[in-house]
Amino acid sequence: MEKPSMLTTIKGLVIMSRPPFHSVGVLPFLLGALLAYRMYGVFHVAVFVWGIIAVILIMLSTYYNGEYSDIVEDRLLTPMGRSIFHGGSGIVATDMLSDIYAKKAGYVTLILAVLIGLIIQFYYKTGPLTIPLGIVGILSGFFYSKMPLRWVAKGIGEILIGICYGWLPVAVSFYIQHGTIDSIVHWVSVPIACTIFNVILINEFPDYHADLIAKKNHLVIRLGKEKAAYLYIVVAAIAWVAYLLSIQQGIPPIALIVYSPIFIVSLIAVFMMFGKKYRERRLLEIMCGLTIVTNLGTTLSYIIALWWSM
Fold this sequence. Notes:
globular
């Protein structure tokens, strides 16, 4: 491959970074800090900023690793067409950049995340769980697509994503602010974890045939589309119930008003899934969009409610 220009390299790395998808990690982290502030009146700006940077770096490492680890299935998807929801960025698969760029970027961002984690724990003295919690995020993200662990092919990748984009950022943010992880963290994390789980699950539907050939044995491959559709519905229902329970645990009731349109969006996606609309590619793309809106909206409803009640 001819060496790309500096402009092409920068453009390719930016696209591989997938900036819009950083919101699924940044917003729960913001939520954790808001919870700590509302409950204990603490907010350490420097710790929060360093934490956000570390979260973004871990996500970048995950995305970059996915670009070169999933190159076989991504290339199979290229003739079928890809969307913003699945199939990677296409930068490596279409040879805009060599996979070595993604590989190096994955390691660089990982090293930077580790260094920042050390700064947060030992300079700001945020507590002994800071590094262990960070390791959970790093191991889950770095090896999500990468061998030898490759969680996505072992049938647990979706669960790890639920934990790392649901519970973990809320818990870490709360912990580095106050030094504890209160029970309210667990309650608000369940709906977020469930909705991001469904984001990953439904994004595997359009990748089914390419992933089957590439032996990327995620849950949709293991269960089949019909059973995976029912799993999506059950997980969505768990998210609804968990949201109601979180209100009983101390989240301001105004959250229910903010959450109402998000619940409707989720309900529409569930009815579409129940009606097997995932069989039609155009409707499946709409369902993918509705699911990511549900996840972001769920987190935002908590943030708005907490902010409003301060």
